[in-house]
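Why does this matter for the project? Reviewers at the last site visit asked to see concrete outputs rather than summary tables. In response, this paragraph embeds two records directly. Each consists of the residue sequence and, immediately after it, the corresponding structure tokens. Nothing has been edited or filtered.
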Amino acid sequence: MRLNTLIVATFSLWIGGVNLYAQSSTERESWTLQDCVNQALEYQFSVRQAANNVKAAESDRLANFGGLLPSVNAGAGNFWNSGLSIDPVTNEVNRNNLSTASGSVSAQWTLFDGFQTWNAFRQSQVQVALAAAQLDDARNAVALNTASQFLAVLLADESLRIAQEQLTTSERQKERSQKLLNAGAIAPNEYLSVEAQCAVDAQRVVASENQLEFAELVLKQLLGLSGDQDLVLQRPENLPTAPSAVMALSPQAIFTASVAKQPAVRAAEHQLMASHYAVKRAQGARIPTLSVSGQFSTSYSDRAQKYLGTAPQVLPVGFWLDGADQIPVYTLVNTPSFGEFTFEDQLRENVRQFVGLNVSVPLFNGFRITNAVKRAQLAEENAELQVMQQRDTYR
């Protein structure tokens, strides 16, 4: 009766889902069903991989959210030139050694791209929920497999006990038959029949022992225990003997409750929603893209000189003859004056800025966009079929 009740409890665990968390060490005197499930959830690689997938989906969501924001970059560099070169600050041809430096801050922001970036962010949000549902599904699968194997060990142990009791009964019957045969009360063929039954029962004991050992080995693998480690299961105590309320439900009620709680169904529904956003994202590639960009930069050259202004200067421009004498002619010229152009002054005065708008119109791209839209639509149809398949699984 207790094993039957445990079977019902395992079935209820499958209907309602599990929300169990791993506990501590594997070293214990006996293992309850809860201990086995917790240890399996902590050990199983599928659960740990599913948990990492949740973290990866959250990272992708953050990256897609960043796609909605402007990108800002900064850069700086110092360059040394020798031989023929053009000064990037003065644009003069220079044959001497030249040292220059530059720095810039640039930004770029996509103002509109057919909602591709927005739909990518929405898709990543759904994929986080999808990864979480897949994690719950992995937990459910591990918990159900562990509970089923726990039950298999108890059933094998019970079968071994029954086989041993049957063998004990057969051996006693064999002893009585031996005495009756010696007294001539029974025929030899009757004794041989009892002896054959005893051999069959002994064979059943060996088979039951092997079945129990195999069931324990499978359970140890689920728990991540070594094959030579002792595994003592604690039988459930004080289990209710009344029929479970789950067994009293109608098949349709069980189906409704199962579909509402099963993470595999939720995962399929989230996958369908993610596929829907993937279609909208692919369709957005047909729409023109508008972006804005800007840059703030400055530069320095060790050959540059600072313009200080002009200074009046009297210069000879020729002469005139006064008989045999040459009389010089002078003129007043404003001559440009240059001085030292310090590093700080150049960074401040060589500042340049620009802002630009860019529009990209997809005219023809070798049917890549058409193919991407078609494949996204087919993926959405497959996701819808997957939802129907998951629902049919629990029908």
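We now turn to the second protein, recorded in exactly the same manner.
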Amino acid sequence: MQNSIRETIKLVSCFSVFFLVRQADETQKKSLIKTIVIAALIISLYSIYQYFWGYQGTLDYLKEMNSDFILKSSYAKDILITKRSIGTFPSPNILGGYLIMALFLSLSIAESKDHSMVWYLAPFLIVTALILTKSMGAWLSFVSAFIIFFLLSYKSFKHKKIMALIFFIFISLAAFFITISRQERLLDLNDPQNSIIQRMGYWRAASGIIKNHFISGVGPGNFHEVFLNYKVGGGTDTRYAHNIVLHQWAETGITGLIAIIFLIWAFIKKAFFKSKYLFLAGLAFILHNFIDSTYFISQAGLFWWMIIGLSE
């Protein structure tokens, strides 16, 4: 019951943010976009510092104190040893989900010609921080959103082949960096901590929950309460299905499934004609949530509701 109340309060908060942003005029919306980008720029700078200097300082301190903290915590080991930037967020993947939205918003400002040079630096710094999260899910969603938009708007682009080549080279280099730096966790399919294996386990468990609670679901916020009853094989416990559709269906049944599909469709239909950058920011976030859970984490999910409001 407490879980359901907590999730309901969270949803009401998200709706409130949406309606507040929706009521803003165009000048206020532009100011909000700038504020979001400035915040993302600060977080990106901190994430870059964290990667190059912060983590090493933490490791040196733990060694000096003879601490076995890293040995006791697989999460700490993944973050500190593999050097995945988290900024001020709970995990690299959540930071990645936030940054892909902020990146497209920063591009919308950089495209305007009446701004100072700092706005042109913002996309570069944000994308650097995004790379340093080493979040393959965030990068896949970023690339997928860009490809979808490119295909839908192909005729309106100038220098198509040059743009496609530059984009391909850039993405290939980023993917190579992430894969090499996390190859043990990404490529070893026998490792129960492998990201792909874990997600497949989460999806199988979610499918089992849906099969037994097809109509009504298990209630908002209760996925993790029943997860262990449906868990197959090894892997870690989880609060989320790491798939927005499966999670929503498992918790809220058919009604929740229809609601989330309608919400996604309504956003895509509205944002595509409103602004290509709002469309890409929201679409990348949606795609990310087919393999992750940032929609359900307020630190990132709240910004998606802002983007929905901005697209109105």
